[in-house]
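User: Predict the structure for this protein chain, please.
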Amino acid sequence: MSVAAVARTFSDLTDGEALKSRDLVLMLLECSPAPFSRDHFTPGHITCTGLVLAPHGERVLLVHHRRLDRWLLPGGHVEREDAQIGDAARREVIEETGVALLPNPAPPLCGVDVHGIPAKGREPYHLHHDLLFHFRAESEEFRVSSESHAVTWCAPAEFDRYGLPGNVRRSYVRVRELSSSK
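Assistant: Here is the predicted structure, written as structure tokens:
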């Protein structure tokens, strides 16, 4: 399935911010000569993130990002070896946390978020057109990578403490609703 087709699978009509982000992702895919290049800064590039639920489904995996100095979902840039777009999110989750994920050859898209990344060194301010994919962990074991200060499992009651943005909170609600309807 093409990345545009995957992006079009997102259709939560109650989440206007995510729908606008989806439209921006689709525009980037249509108009950019290099939408996956981490060196493409105007208007930015595609990234992928994993919303990983703990084995029992009630907590979310977070990393304290070293460069941005805040709690985020694990994720990052798309690489050439990523056969499918969801593979980029899976690879990033494993690289950043070491968490073992349950097999899922086509993880569902649970959110879309276009957000700014501050300038650093020779990288100017730019946008990450981020696709959020849902995964389930096999266990709660993790490790901290060099990209992070810390890794933790976060319950919804702790979302404020960790400063999770609205897009993550809304994606969590979507994933929980899907899980409970199965």
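The longest helix spans residues 16-31.
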